[in-house]
Structure formats: C-alpha cells, structure tokens
Write a structure and sequence with these properties.
82 residues; rod-shaped
C-alpha cells in the first residue's frame, strides 16, 4: 500500500514537472514573439500596422502573464506538497 502511494506521488510530481517545463517553454516562445512584435512596432509607420502591433503586443503580454501565474501556482503547490 505504501509503495502504491509513493509511486502515485512520484507520478504526480513528474506530471507537475512536465507541466512546468511546458509552461516555461511557452514563456520563452511568447517572449520571442513579443520581442518580434516590438521590433515590428518600431519599424512600421503606417497607423493601421502600428495598431495591429499594439493589439499583438497586448495579447502576447496577456499570454506571458498567464504563463507566469501558472508557473507560480505550480511552485506554490510544490511547496505545499513538499
């Protein structure tokens, strides 16, 4: 019985770690996209393209904030479980 509990905890920990890796990968990708959107914003002079860049930057910032919150939540859960 105790062995089953240990295996279950290990599996849960491995799943949390995989989720954390995926979130961090998403953060890196979003940061790259955000840098590209800022570069485009600085490059374009047409008002419509500038507006499009602003919307894209706002969306990417929201996505990045989501990833940060999720990683913090996972870390808090890890501390509570540990």
């Amino acid at each position: 019985m105790a062995e089953a509990v240990r295996l279950s905890r290990r599996r849960a920990a491995a799943m949390r770690e995989e989720e954390r890796r995926q979130l961090l990968a998403g953060m890196r990708e979003t940061k790259t996209q955000l840098n590209h959107a800022y570069a485009q914003f600085n490059f374009y002079s047409d008002p419509d393209l500038v507006d499009a860049c602003v919307y894209e930057i706002n969306a990417l910032q929201s996505r990045y904030s989501y990833y940060v919150r999720q990683v913090k939540q996972l870390e808090a859960e890890r501390e509570d479980a540990g």
